[in-house]
Amino acid sequence: MIIASAVAAVVPISVFLLIIWRIDRFDKEPFYLVLLNHLWGAIGAIIFTFLGSTFISLVLSFLVQNLSLQSHIETIVVAPVVEEITKGIFLLLMINLKSFDNITDGIVYGGAIGLGFGMTENFFYFVTFGTDLPSWVSLVVIRTLFSAVMHCVATATLGAFLAYAKFKNIYSKVGFFILGLATAMFIHAFWNLTVSFQSTALFGFLFMLVNIIAFFVMFFLAINNEKKIIYRELLEEANAGLIPFEHLQIINSKVRNYQGWINENIRNDYVKAVITLAFRKVQLRNSLYNNREVYQREVDYYRGYVFQLLTNNVMY
Predict the structure, then answer these.
(1) Phi-psi bin for 241: left (phi > 0), alpha (psi -120 to 50), beta?
(2) pLDDT for 23-61, tens place per residue?
(3) How far apart are CA 231 and CA 248, in angstroms?
(4) What counts of helices (H) and strands (E) characterise the chain?
(5) Over the stretch 252-298, which tens digit does the pLDDT of each residue have?
(6) Please, is 52 exposed, middle or buried when counting C-beta atoms within 10 Å of its C-beta (0-12, 13-18, 19+)?
(7) What share of the chain is helix, strand, coil (3-state, %, to 5)?
(8) What is the mean pLDDT of the chain?
């Protein structure tokens, strides 16, 4: 049962993680960073959640004598607050990376953390409460399709808020962090509340279906916005003569992964460089204070690198 539970916890969540990473097709994040966030959710956040929840439960045991009420408070209030904080705290470190530069990145990194947390939590649930085959199968289906995805959606939402506020002033950053964290906690708390009672469980499943749909709508809108950013920023570079105009549509389509439109020796480096240049230009425009100098150097570097690639290699 332990081996089966481990497989049931790891395999589908790993598939979900790869799907989210692959969907982000224009400015794909390094997989090792996505995996690092996933491992934080699977290990780091789990450990801190256990410590935090244990301490709060101990305090509650002195304040609330009714065991049923204490259990509901822990499920509906304590778990969402502690878990969303421990999952989200790693995003506060990730937001400082240059590669964390748009809403899509926040969704991917946050989603990876949430999936990691859900994976480990699922394993413990499968082993603990799957007392017979029917109950075990039911747990696997429900927790894989809903509970783990809930963790993904909640933390991805916080990631989106953090990414949106990255280049705003400190007051906006704090405000959007609080709003994003509160939204993540609400999603988590409402799910826990509804599935805690048989009479409201259906509302919980409908609520999560709506959230999952909203998640993918938000994800694809963010990806489409990336496409617009890349075209807009590289159009300026084409007008300035840095890159050929015909490359604008190619870079914003699957054609960029095919051979024949540029020297194959530089294709991957060139695509990565021009896309990075586009986003560094946006970062430069939106950055404040000393960060402007950093991003200006980045923009200058990538312009020079792209020029060197195109100058030293034969174009098709």
Answers:
(1) left
(2) 887 878 889 999 999 999 999 999 999 999 999 999 998
(3) 6
(4) 13, 0
(5) 888 888 888 888 889 999 999 999 999 899 888 888 766 788 889 99
(6) middle
(7) 85, 0, 15
(8) 91
Residue position matching structure tokens 């748009």: 102
79 residue type, one letter: A
pLDDT in tens, 173-201: 899 999 999 999 999 999 999 998 888 88
Please answer whether residues 171 and 178 qualify as being in contact, where contact means their C-beta atoms are separated by less than 8 angstroms: no
DSSP state of 132: S
Give the whole-angstrom CA distance, residue 154 versus residue 169. 24
Amino acid at 303: R
Asked whether 302 and 277 are in contact (CB, 8 A), the reply is yes
**φ, ψ of residue 288 in degrees (nearest 5):** -120, 150
State the maximum Cα–Cα separation within the chain, in Å, rounded to a whole number: 78
Give the contacts of 240 (CB within 8 A, at least 6 positions apart). none
Residue bearing tokens 């699922």: 122
**The whole model's pTM is what?**
0.89
Residue 5 and residue 180: Cα distance in Å, rounded?
32
Distance CA 9, CA 181 (A): 26
Separation between Cα atoms, residue 12 and residue 118, nearest integer Å:
11
Q: What is the DSSP string of 105-166?
A: HHHHHHHHHHHHHHHHHHHHHHHHH--SHHHHHHHHHHIIIIIHHHHHHHHHHHHHHHHHHT
Give the model confidence (pLDDT) of 293-302 as tens digits.
Answer: 888 999 999 9
**Both tokens of residue 214?**
């909203």
